[in-house]
Write a structure and sequence with these properties.
It is a single chain. The protein is mainly α and about 240 residues long. The protein is built from seven helices and three strands; from the N terminus they run ββαβαααααα. It has a three-stranded antiparallel β-sheet, with no helix packed on it. The protein is globular and about 65 Å long.
């Protein structure tokens, strides 16, 4: 029973899965029986839209749980990325295996060549960023030593090695997943794409090599003088 305003109301039907939200909008005489008269359900606070319902979840709670799951997944991913940072050789072996699997799949299914061409262009662009200095001498002035008398400065890449590996591996995985969708299998004449990619590769690498020769740098840190400590004096005794 529910007491209110000096009157006692009883449920006409009792259900263990009662939810006040599901009763909003129904006539009060269908919900309550009273010795005197039925009062409108909207006058009772239990029919507020904020009342909790068993077996249901607030959309805000769903968003908060999704946000917590996303944050936990991001922390786990970042943890494994941090652990793999010092293992450069193993990371690139994994990248080579991913590329091998992708090439094998494209060869077996005999399609999705436009996806392969786009992947090759993206990897080539990342490779050029890996070979390029962070500060372009032509745009921002000399950032590399031009003679042996200048102070040694290590080569700083525009795209660091770890970011190069992470972006390239992610691109291969995305391209591999796209081969499972027929909508991306655009019919093209693949020999033309292959010849165009080879020409683009040689022209891009030629420009990059000329840039290295013009500004006299190599894409790795070298040339730092190494000094050996003084050898300990031998005891004549």
């Amino acid at each position: 029973p529910i007491k209110g305003a000096g009157r006692v109301y009883t449920w006409a039907t009792v259900s263990p899965s009662f939810c006040p939200r599901t009763l909003q909008g129904k006539p009060a005489n269908q919900l309550f029986t009273s010795s005197r008269h039925a009062r409108s359900a909207e006058s009772l606070s239990i029919f507020s839209s904020d009342a909790a319902c068993p077996g249901t979840m607030d959309p805000q709670d769903e968003e908060s749980k999704f946000g917590e799951f996303k944050a936990k997944l991001g922390r786990t991913w970042q943890h494994w990325m941090d652990r793999s940072t010092p293992h450069a050789g193993a990371r690139w072996v994994v990248f080579g295996l991913l590329c091998g699997l992708y090439v094998l799949r494209v060869w077996l299914i005999d399609g999705w060549f436009i996806i392969t061409y786009g992947l090759g262009i993206y990897l080539l662009n990342n490779f050029i960023g890996f070979l390029s200095p962070q500060v372009d001498p032509e745009m921002e002035g000399p950032g590399l030593p031009m003679s042996d008398s200048e102070e040694f400065r290590p080569f700083s890449r525009r795209l660091p090695e770890f970011k190069f590996w992470a972006a390239s591996s992610r691109a291969v995985l995305i391209a591999f997943s796209m081969t499972f969708f027929e909508m991306f299998n655009i019919p093209v004449f693949w020999p033309i794409l292959l010849l165009y990619f080879i020409a683009l590769f040689f022209l891009t690498m030629k420009r990059q090599i000329l840039h290295m020769y013009k500004h006299k740098y190599v894409p790795w840190s070298s040339g730092k003088a190494r000094y050996k400590g003084k050898a300990p004096a031998k005891d004549d005794k």
